[in-house]
Amino acid sequence: MANFDYSKEKIQDIFMIDVKSFYASCECVIRGLDPLTTRLVVLSHAENTSRGGLVLAASPAAKKDFGVTNVMRGRDLPISKSFNKELLIAEARKETLPIYDEELKFYRVPPRMRYYVKENMKINKIFKDYTAPIDMHPYSIDETILDVTASLNYFYPGNELSRYQKRDLLAREIQLTIYKKLGFYVTVGIGDNVILAKLAMDNEAKHNRTMRAQWTYSDVESKVWSIKPLTEFWSIGSRMAKRFESMGILSIKDLANYDFHILNNKFGIVGMEYYHHANGIDRTIVRNRYLPKSNSLSNNQVLPKDYNAKEFMLILKEQVSQTISRVRKRGAKAATIHLYVGYAMSENERGFSRQLKMAPTNSTSAVIKAAESLFNKFYNGHSKIRHIGVSFGKFTYTDELQLDLFSDPSKQIKDEKLDKAVDEIRLKYGFTSIFKAASLSDYGTSLDRANSVGGHAGGTDGMEVVEKNK
Prior knowledge:
MutS, DNA mismatch repair protein, domain I
């Protein structure tokens, strides 16, 4: 029995749209290949090694025929003897690696993040033909939420068709337009609210021949409650599923009918959100943008090899310098720095994660000093390092320079001018136009990362491109 009176809930016309295997589809389209039938993976390459890297995306055919999954390692992909030989020869000669395994009819291509971002922008431009920009929310690079409540009757006026039929026809039109103009297949979940549209897309539309599915309030008990296992429900990961199971919650139906007072006491507002979502309730309005009370900027990197402490110090300085430059670009100063250092898999320890409060600053030299202090205090002195994460938070927005009484004032003023000069040069000519000579060493990674978007191959100064297109 339903726990809510759905007749009192606001009915919206929400589309959750996902581009099927987006990165892989982009690579198929640009080569004139069918995204659904071509066996292709987008594979990150680590230091140009023939079997290294991770699968960032796999086409439907690669998943079906070879069992490929995202984040599968390159060494675990199927490979013919002849293609393996080609890879080894190219690697030995330091040549560009081949991408097509003729025997298996299987493509392995490197990522081109800048190209994917451009294609995403083309798709979002099409969406604006069907709803106002304020009623669009890019959920990720391959998923977008559209609220077509205000435009549905514009495309299908009159009372001859039901609201249900109009939604399906408009979703189909969007699918056909994107395919005809760009060559992409898109999946559409349709719902009375955002959560129902998301669940319809993830749990039904992706398996339908039409790549569309529509869930309404009347489907909550028959469809939402039947989602199995718990981890197939949006936002429930394996750890949360185990916590629910320890409470006797073994299904979405159990969650929907659980005592919400207990959920609230145990999980707070998140527990209430789970309870409402399990009952198909989501009162989110797409055009009401969420503004966080506090914000931060972070930069994370999995290193190409294991680093010792001496080698790692260059990486630390590069990462801190790059991240604080983004803080300055916002016109902000940070009052906290957080450092995560992950040790290599061969080590017995996992690493450490620590935070330090500072006087509000965006000075490169000041934050490098703070980061070095954190590292020297908490590093165990011997483990190899494979992962770094730096973040700055508790922003204040002011042009005033707050001098440190324990440092030379003239040097602080000089450092501020130097930071501004470097920022201006990079803004005009790109990140790689000016850098420390140490970055040219075998240990530096900033120059390679400057040519990436989202940490993968994409073009010069990838981080700046992402910032500009937010």
